[in-house]
Amino acid sequence: MLHVNENYARIKPTYLFAEIAHRVQEHQKSGNAGRIIRLGIGDVTEPLAPAVVEAMHKAVDDEAGRENFHGYGPEQGYQFLRDKIAEIDFHSRGIDIKPDEILVSDGAKCDCGNIQELFSVDVKVAVTDPVYPVYVDTNVMAGRHNIELLKCGKENGFVPSPAGCDADIVYLCFPNNPTGAVATKAQLQEWVDWANAGKKLIIFDAAYEAFIRTEGIPHSIYECEGARTCAIEMRSYSKTAGFTGVRCGYTVVPTELYAYASDGTPVSLKAMWTRRQTTKFNGASYITQRGAEAIYSPEGMKQTKDIIDFYLENARLVREALTSLGYEAFGGVDSPYVWIDVKGSSWDFFDKLLKEANVVTTPGAGFGEAGEGFIRISAFNSRENVLEAIDRISRVL
Ligand code: PLP
Q: What percent of the chain is predicted at pLDDT more than 70?
């Protein structure tokens, strides 16, 4: 008999966004729906920066001729992109990350989901609650059911402390999805010290790093002393440069990072991740990587920064509107997400905004128990739609 991986039966049966899509569809079928404005799923709406488009067009021309044609590239990513990442994302901030410690991929979701393959099924994993569901579900699929939840609420400013955490691996994401919270350097340093003291690992998801504008907030876990021996970092161009449909990101695994075999022998995680990627992944496309390289050109940096500033202004408008309606709003400053205390059930509030204002948000309960009582509003939309959504929300609340 063909047996299935029964761990799959232990993940929540409907993925959050599938349930939202279902409710939106039902609302549309009811015949009472007007024009729907989507501030739910965190997908970008602005087109690619002109510098990226130009570079990708040129790369298509390369692929169209014999002289500069590229077939399979290096699985770890082209050197031209890895060099730029090391120089601009890290060296320019005084962080020592070498190009060969950077592995380019087709986005952070795959890397966040796949990284757990490197570890024994008995390692204990901790995640924040609320959480980006990929960290949890991929560990459950692999057979790790005993996941420690680090509660993030108003009382800790949505940033957990390592005190009392006895996991081997912790997933941290700042700026955070869904709460929009950022962690200070001192808070991240506590986690780094915790990890180094106990031979533990931090998986740091910096997918929203480009939204940080507040001086002093770390853009990378490697700004903390000692992080090279205890942290893996993931980055994504999805929100940084509108690459949700293009697909590109990268993972940093420093040379000094080790986990241990059962006899205590240290094993290089960089060697393991390289082996994993070169075996199971055939590289992001040449055209995509030329596009990603263009983000680091002077024009590319300016253009992508302007797009992020535009989303941040949307976030500010949403945050101010909800605050003036008497709701406590968090995030939305160094993040595209505004996290609102709705003083009641998050699915009820979601349904109210959907049915009465035709605005789609994300109920906090979908991100974990501690997300109950909140909704997430995303700033990814046109200014016109954001203003209209604010107007409609103001009328129904
Ligand atoms: N990490 C977080 C926290 C996210 O919110 C997302 C996307 O929404 C991702 C990773 C996935 O990014 P990518 O599009 O690069 O797969």
A: 99
pLDDT tens by residue, 4-41: 999 999 987 667 888 899 999 999 998 878 899 999 98
- What digits encode the pLDDT tens for the residues 353-375? 999 999 999 999 999 999 999 99
**7, exposed or middle or buried, with CB in 10 Å at 0-12, 13-18, 19+?**
middle
Q: How far is the CA of 392 from the centre of ligand 1 (A)?
A: 29
pTM beyond 0.90: the answer is: yes
Residues lining ligand 1, judged by CB closer than 6 Å? 42, 107-109, 112, 132, 173, 177, 205, 207, 236, 238, 244, 249
Which residue, 277, 328, 270, is CA-closest to 76? 277
The matching CATH number, chosen from 3.40.640.10, 3.10.20.740, 3.30.460.80, 1.10.150.390, for 50-297 is: 3.40.640.10
Edge-to-edge strands, sheet with 337-341? 328-331, 337-341, 374-378, 362-363
Rounded CA-CA distance 280/227 in Å is 27
Hey, what are 292's tokens? Answer: 């990603």
| Residue whose CA is at the smallest distance from ligand 1 atom 2 | 207
Residue whose CA is closest, atom 8 of ligand 1? Answer: 42
